[in-house]
């Protein structure tokens, strides 16, 4: 996710960016700094459209409200998060469709809530990073159909690709579960993406790539329950 941070105070730009990265993760977000409204408007004119804008209201060259009006000429729906030490100015932000308001100094819990809501709005794709032949390769976790324990390696089956890397299966489970809660261990050797299940059979599960995977007797009831819960939650 690309976030523009617009504030005429360099110290605050650095501070809010560090907070965003610490809460979200360096691999998931990039912060781009702008010292005033004119700078980011110029960036928009040059074709760079970030995913969201954290915008200080009180700036000398071009204040945040004027800047937001200019941004709206380029994008009617980009989330704008206003930052201000004068919360009474928040009402003015509704005319430009402000996404959120954060008081200065920014409270970390409020920032965490804002980032969570922002992620839901943008539906940011969660990713996992795998070490393949000495290089870190990033994959969208939604494209992972299942992971399979294979001796001292783990086989990751994606839609359109299959990779194998040396790691413990427990490490693979942790890596995947940190990125998505839509996976379930239906067998000691299989960790499946519930979003890719086509049908649940008697002692096996049919994945949408055509693979049939075993479901252990001890995990059968919970696999069925987790799949039903997933369907109810997502409306799939």
How would you describe this structure to a colleague?
- This protein has a five-stranded parallel β-sheet with strand order 2-1-3-4-5. The chain has a five-stranded antiparallel β-sheet with strand order 10-9-8-12-11. Strands 13-14-15 form a three-stranded antiparallel β-sheet, with no helix packed on it.
- It folds into two domains: 121 residues, 3-Layer(aba) Sandwich (Rossmann fold); 101 residues, OB fold (Dihydrolipoamide Acetyltransferase, E2P) (Beta Barrel).
- With 236 residues, the protein is of the alpha/beta class.
- It contains six helices and 15 strands.
- The model has no long low-confidence stretch (mean pLDDT 88).
- 32% of the residues lie in helices and 32% in strands.
- The longest helix is centred in the N-terminal third of the chain and has 15 residues.
- State the low-pLDDT regions, or none: none
- How many DSSP helices? 6
At the fourth level of CATH, the homologous superfamily of the largest domain is Response regulator
Strand order of the largest sheet: 2-1-3-4-5
Radius of gyration (Å): 22 Å
Structural class: alpha/beta
Kindly state the number of beta strands: 15
**How can the largest sheet be summarized?**
5 strands, parallel
Order of helices and strands: EHEHEHEEHEEEEEHEEEEEH
Name its key features.
236 residues, OB fold (Dihydrolipoamide Acetyltransferase, E2P), single chain, Rossmann fold, five-stranded parallel beta sheet, alpha/beta, five-stranded antiparallel beta sheet, 32% helix
